[in-house]
Design goal:
Helix content of chain B: under 10%
Number of helices of chain A: 31
CATH topology of one domain in chain B: Methylamine Dehydrogenase, Chain H
CATH architecture of one domain in chain B: 7 Propeller
Strand order of the largest sheet of chain B: 3-4-5-6
Radius of gyration of chain A: 44 Å
CATH superfamily of one domain in chain B: YVTN repeat-like/Quinoprotein amine dehydrogenase
Protein name (chain B): Nucleoporin SEH1
Largest sheet of chain A: none
Oligomer: heterodimer
GO cellular component, one term (chain B): Seh1-associated complex
Distance between the termini of chain A: 97 Å
Shape of chain A: rod-shaped
Pfam families (chain B): WD40
Organism (chain B): Buceros rhinoceros silvestris
Structural class of chain B: mainly beta
Family (chain B): Belongs to the WD repeat SEC13 family.
Distance between the termini of chain B: 29 Å
Helix content of chain A: over 70%
């Protein structure tokens, strides 16, 4: 449930705090130490705020009386006095400790009646003369009605009981029962909710919100959440007493007491330099449907705004960007477009990272981004002359034009060097071969040297012919193919059938006819000679094959 | 040209002299086209450069080689800006010159960077100082280019003009002129469009200005429709207190950076109520200006004397100084168009002039000039 989520957040914050604390303690460098200490203090503040928000906004009425929860909160977070308490309790004779009464006061102020009574009993045993006083005080403290967790009593019952108890305390005070012991008298006054008496213990409370809770405990224990605002400001003013002005933390807490959720978020945004806190708190409040009570667009859009900001920040980190992706996924309005913009900008220094990014894009059908990233990687590979890598990227990008370009480069390489690079890749193209005509040609043509090498001449011949007649081969390459055919034509055994030879001749004629007069003029001798040689070889082959085919077998 | 190494340091990997006059601007093409740069200069030329991957030795020595692919010599005066068009338009760039001519070139074969053809020549009648392409790839509107002028002539003509490509005439035509900008303009920049129906344009002039341009129904003229725009100024800041020279947007168009003669870089951001505010000030060396946090009321000291670390850990410290001064975004390394800013101090604000009737994000009908926001108790002692 949402409260559990909130508690999880808080335990994470506390865990961070612990780590920071450890780091701070072990830091040698004073600058580092102070940096860590700062972090600890910030974390502690946000945990404080979050806890209060949890109590006031998220838990609501379900978890029991407000005051008890606020008491818990105060006890948890205001512990400057813990050292003192420990010191007194662990001393040999607590009641003789000079800070004894301070500790008792602390317990009373925090509503820790049992502990207070326990301490008092020690004192009582040490000072039998005041036994009577102790008994009365102890009794009062024992009988103090507190709002209970279980709903065994109604509010009215509780208030009635409390009224009686209050009057009883009043009587004892007025009778002067505690007159001889100023400590006990002040405790009694505190029990009665006497503002001045409580205020006197300022240093023990240390903060105005402690003062607020204490005051409420002893004057309005059945306070309801919505009533807090009436007391909060007054308490803060009294406590600060005009000597100091509210700190940012104070303003935030005040806004929380006044149930001004938007104000809380606003103040936190100003005070904190990191979006983490406001983004997650707002998100949680939004899930609790608490922000919508103000105004529909306000609430959900503020959540998205904060999450977008937070996630954008994550993208500048070399590995946390992956978290950013998830955050964007949860922003219904602008998440996708933000993701599209950010993901294209992630530096792709390794192929692994590129693949990771691509997977994310493909999962979300971000086709344009996939294409763009693949194109960038392909270009990078091409520039570094890694043709195989470039080809596989362009296949992934489904970029036919680029694939064609790279295939041309492969073919050019082959013509220059006589062998193919990245043969593995070409062999395993599979259906990707069909991406572009040139690529298909490359994939199939690659077979030729192999077939020739394996002396499978008729198959090689068939391949060559097929490439030309099926128009898979680009015209520019025909000359090369025909030249490839030369050795086959010159074989002792006739390789090409008559029909095939006619086909070849036609191809050659098509090729030469296609050239304009001007081109023919510009053709150098080598070119012309090649054509002549081909014509001759073809004619010779034709002659041989006609004879062969004409000859009856066996006769 | 500087490259960033593995450990985050920037090293100069190439440096060469080529133009015969001051080089005014330099700009990157989209990485889809490879590693390509364009430069423009006082010597009346613009040039396109490509990085050539050289010998492996060079890589080790940290050197890269750049080759000039083409020189564009059509201009008769100093070429003051050069910008590549958004990648969806192909490999295209625009230049503008001091004689008021904007030229748009295209390389039809993206693999051949030496062939560029002049596609359009636009005469702006004012000396041009800067141009900006609208980066939006939405098909809802045609290609658009903004031109700024630093003309000092006494006629008070609008110094920012918007040109739009007309499908029917196949030409660029002037769609709009920002009449309110009458001071010389030094830089201009469209913000990335996040699927908004309107455009955002930043102008660097004697102050920083941000405009929204909302396309209205196209006017049906015989030449087939030029878009009319509803123009609003959504922000105007004179914090630089001097000429503003450059403006630049972040990736999402949510943060604007400006630089001025005061030697500072200022960052501007809108909260979700579309109110723009300054979120950071950086000095020339990248260090933040003291007290440049959102509200300078924080006390710098952390903790009073009696705060112990242990107390902090267990609960609120006795001291009430909780939040140390905000870290302004650290500039760290140089800006590259690909750098994303660290989250700056945020800006949630309940603006009293919030239009409660139409609380819809974004606010296309945001109106009125906001007063120059001088909220910050800046220490301008540089």
């Amino acid at each position: 449930r949402l409260v559990q989520v909130s508690k999880n957040y808080r335990s994470v914050i506390r865990a961070c705090m612990e780590d920071m604390h450890q780091a701070a303690i072990s830091a040698r460098d004073p600058a580092l130490h102070s940096q860590y200490s700062t972090q600890v203090s910030i974390l502690s503040a946000i945990e404080l705020i979050w806890n209060l928000c949890e109590i006031l906004f998220i838990e609501a009425a379900a978890a029991g009386p407000l005051l008890l929860r606020l008491l818990d909160w105060v006890r948890l977070h205001v512990c400057d006095v813990d050292n003192m308490v420990r010191e007194v309790l662990s001393s040999e004779n607590p009641s003789k400790h000079k800070l004894f009464w301070n500790v008792v006061d602390v317990f009373v102020l925090q509503g820790r009646m049992d502990e207070a009574r326990h301490l008092l009993s020690k004192e009582a045993s040490a000072d039998p003369a005041s036994m009577n006083m102790y008994k009365i005080l102890d009794d009062l403290m024992k009988k103090m009605p507190v709002p209970s967790l279980s709903n065994t009593q109604t509010l009215t019952e509780m208030e009635l009981k409390w009224q009686h108890w209050h009057e009883e305390c009043q009587r004892y005070l007025q009778d002067g029962t505690f007159a001889s012991n100023s400590h006990m008298e002040s405790i009694c006054k505190i029990l009665l909710g006497d503002e001045d008496a409580i205020l006197q213990k300022k240093e023990l409370m240390t903060t105005w919100y402690h003062f607020l809770v204490t005051r409420l405990l002893y004057s309005h224990p059945t306070v309801k959440p919505m009533e807090l605002r009436f007391y909060a400001q007054a308490c803060m003013d009294l406590f600060l007493g005009g000597e100091s002005s509210p700190e940012p933390l104070d303003t935030i807490l005040m806004a929380a007491f006044e149930f001004e959720m938007h104000q809380v978020i606003k103040e936190c945004s100003i005070a904190l330099s990191n979006w983490w806190f406001v983004a997650h708190l707002t998100d949680l409040l939004d899930h609790c449907k608490l922000l919508q009570s103000h105004n529909l667009y306000f609430g959900s859009n503020m959540r998205e705004f904060l999450l977008l900001e937070y996630a954008s920040g994550l993208f500048s980190h070399h590995s946390l960007w992956q978290l950013g992706v998830d955050y964007f996924d949860h922003c219904p309005e602008y998440g996708r477009v933000y993701l599209e913009l950010h993901i294209e900008r992630i530096p792709l220094n390794t192929e692994q990272k590129a693949l990771k990014v691509l997977r994310i894009c493909e999962q979300r059908q971000m086709h344009e981004q996939v294409r763009s990233i693949c194109k960038i990687m392909a270009m990078k590979a091409l520039r570094n002359n890694r043709l195989g890598s470039a080809l596989s990227w362009s296949i992934r990008a489904k970029d036919a034009a680029f694939a064609t370009l790279i295939s041309d480069r492969f073919l050019k390489d082959y013509c220059e060097r006589g062998c193919f690079s990245d043969l593995d890749l070409i062999d395993n193209l599979g259906p990707a071969m069909l991406l572009s005509d040139r690529l298909t040609f490359l994939g199939k043509y690659r077979e030729f040297p192999r077939l020739y090498g394996e002396k499978r001449f008729s198959e090689a011949a068939k391949l060559l012919l097929m490439l030309m007649t099926a128009h898979i081969a680009p015209c520019s390459f025909w000359m090369t193919l025909l030249t490839d055919a030369l050795p086959l034509l010159e074989q002792k055994e006739v390789v090409f059938s008559a029909e095939q030879t006619y086909e070849l001749m036609r191809c050659l004629e098509d090729l030469t006819a296609g050239k304009s007069e001007k081109q023919k003029f510009q053709d150098d001798d080598a070119e012309a000679m090649k054509v002549e040689m081909l014509r001759l070889a073809l004619a010779r082959n034709l002659a041989r094959v006609i004879v062969k085919e004409g000859t009856l077998e066996g006769s | 040209v500087w490259d960033k190494s593995e450990n985050g340091d920037w090293h100069c990997t190439a440096s060469w002299k080529t133009h015969s006059g001051s080089v005014w601007r330099v700009t990157w093409a989209h990485p889809e086209f490879g590693q390509v740069l364009a430069s423009c200069s006082f010597d009346r030329t613009a040039a396109v450069w490509e990085e050539i991957v050289g010998e492996s030795n060079d890589k080790l020595r940290g050197q890269s080689h750049w080759v000039k692919r083409t020189t564009l010599v059509d201009s008769r005066t100093s070429v003051t800006d050069v910008k590549f068009a958004p990648k969806h338009m192909g490999l295209m760039l625009a230049t503008c010159s001091a004689d008021g001519v904007v030229r748009i070139y295209e390389a039809p074969d993206v693999m051949n960077l030496s062939q560029w053809s002049l596609q359009h020549e636009i005469s702006c009648k004012l000396s041009c100082s800067c141009i900006s392409w609208n980066p939006s790839s939405s098909r809802a509107h045609p290609p658009m280019i903004a031109v700024g002028s630093d003309d000092n002539s006494p006629n008070i003509l609008a110094k920012v003009q918007i040109y739009e490509y007309n499908e029917n005439t196949r030409k660029y035509a002037k769609a709009e002129a920002l009449m309110t900008v009458t001071d010389p303009v030094h830089d201009i920049a469209f913000a990335p469009n996040l699927g908004r129906s309107f455009h955002i344009l930043a102008v660097a002039t004697k102050d920083v200005r941000i405009f929204t341009l909302k396309p209205l129904r196209k006017e049906l003229t015989s030449s087939g429709g030029l878009t009319k725009f509803e123009i609003h100024i959504v922000a105007q800041f004179d914090n630089h207190n001097s000429q503003v020279w450059r403006v630049s947007w972040n990736i999402t168009g949510t943060v604007l950076a400006s630089s001025g003669d005061d030697g500072c870089v200022r960052l501007w951001k809108a909260n979700y109520m579309d109110n723009w505010k300054c979120t950071g000030i950086l000095k020339g060396n990248g260090s933040p200006v003291n007290g440049s946090s959102q509200q300078g009321i924080f006390n710098a000291s952390l903790g009073s004397a009696n705060t112990s670390l242990q107390n902090s850990l267990n609960g609120s410290s006795a001291s009430r100084y909780f939040f140390p001064p905000l870290d302004s975004p650290r500039a760290g390394s140089r800006w590259s168009s690909h750098a994303q800013l660290l989250p700056p101090p945020p800006l949630i604000e309940h603006s009293c002039d919030a239009d409660t009737a139409s609380l819809q994000y974004p606010h296309p009908r945001r109106r009125c000039v906001s007063r120059p926001l001088n909220l910050l108790p800046e220490n301008e002692g540089v």
